[in-house]
Design a protein that fits this description.
The complex is a heterodimer of chains A (about 60) and B (about 250).
Chain A lengths: L3 H5 L7 H17 L9 H8 L1 H6 L6
Chain B lengths: L3 H41 L19 H29 L9 H23 L13 H28 L5 H22 L13 H45 L1
The chains are: A mainly alpha (about 60), B mainly alpha (about 250).
């Protein structure tokens, strides 16, 4: 009898998984937080395009 | 044998599905107070006179229609990205509700993540609609917001650690101790962080403000709890199949 936890502990998390997760966090940052730090002038267009989503998800905005 | 890749793909799928659900809540619910708030902003100054920011008018950078579509697209993209990170954290979280079914583990994890990265910041720094917020303080407010999010995630991690440490205790004692510790830590975070720096302008109707805040919370719950539920549904049968195969092979 294998418990669910036992089968999960068999999951090996490869190193690239951390790179993939970092990418996920960067994408989240660009959509929700970018205020000009990473993209400079392009960020204003990005900010305005995702505007309603930023407000709706409760992220501080302008 | 469950592979990380199979979990990651299910995380992306769960994030996409919960993101679409959250985007629909935005279109049908949150856009109503956003529209009312934009009317307040419009009434305040002639179009285009606010520095570096526009919501329509002659010199608009992005049209209102594009902002609605872009906002929904942004929620879906964030859902997919969070789903991927969620799957990785799930794969690493060996002690989180160990012994429970994968669905229970995933659902409880989604609910905890909602509490840490959405409900806690919402309690301390409630979401504000357009026409509220001083552009001068946006970086300060962003730092405070991210600080609360990090504090919330630390509380979830510490609760899991404490639950593991108290494994020798009876279930009621263990649950009560963990809940009390989480409540105390939450109170400390709420008291330690400074008050929100922005005052609500007098021309913003209170009902619009709170309709927006509650819509925002509903949308966040749809996204995060949704990821936990959908990921649990996707991962549970898959894990059982993998176990069945292992059992078969060992016979």
């Amino acid at each position: 009898m294998t418990s669910p936890a036992a089968s999960l502990s068999a999951v090996r998390v490869p190193k690239w998984a951390f790179a993939v997760s970092l990418l996920g966090l960067i994408v989240t940052y660009l959509v929700l937080q970018e205020n000009g730090l990473a993209l400079g002038a392009g960020s204003e267009l990005l900010h305005e395009f995702f505007h309603d989503g930023r407000h709706a998800l409760g992220v501080p905005c302008h | 044998m469950v592979t990380y890749k199979s979990l990651a793909l299910r995380g992306i799928a769960a994030g996409g599905i919960a993101g679409v659900a959250s985007a629909l809540v935005q279109l049908l619910v949150t856009e109503i107070p956003i529209r009312a708030a934009l009317a307040v902003e419009e009434a305040r100054a002639p179009a285009g006179e606010q520095a570096g920011h526009s919501h329509g008018g002659e010199d608009e950078l992005v049209s209102r229609g594009a902002q609605i579509v872009g906002g929904m697209l942004g929620v879906v993209i964030v859902g997919i990205a969070v789903g991927l990170v969620f799957a990785t954290a799930y794969a690493l979280s060996k002690r989180w509700f160990a012994g429970s079914s994968p669905f229970t583990r995933s659902f409880a994890f989604g609910a905890a993540v909602f509490g840490a990265v959405a409900l806690l910041p919402w309690l301390k720094y409630p979401a504000n609609p357009p026409a509220v917020g001083d552009p001068e303080t946006v970086n300060y407010r962003t730092a405070l917001y991210l600080g609360v999010v990090v504090a919330g995630l630390v509380i979830v991690w510490a609760a899991s650690w404490l639950a593991e440490r108290l494994r020798a205790q009876s279930q009621p004692v263990r649950t009560t101790a963990v809940l009390l510790a989480v409540a105390a830590a939450t109170a400390v975070v709420l008291l330690a962080f400074p008050a929100p720096p922005d005052t609500i302008p007098a021309d913003m109707p209170v009902n619009v403000l709170w309709q927006f805040r509650l819509s925002s919370l509903a949308q966040l719950a749809t996204l995060y709890v949704g990821i936990g539920v959908v990921f649990g549904l996707l991962v549970d049968p898959a894990t059982r199949k993998a176990e069945a195969r292992v059992a078969e092979a060992s016979v």
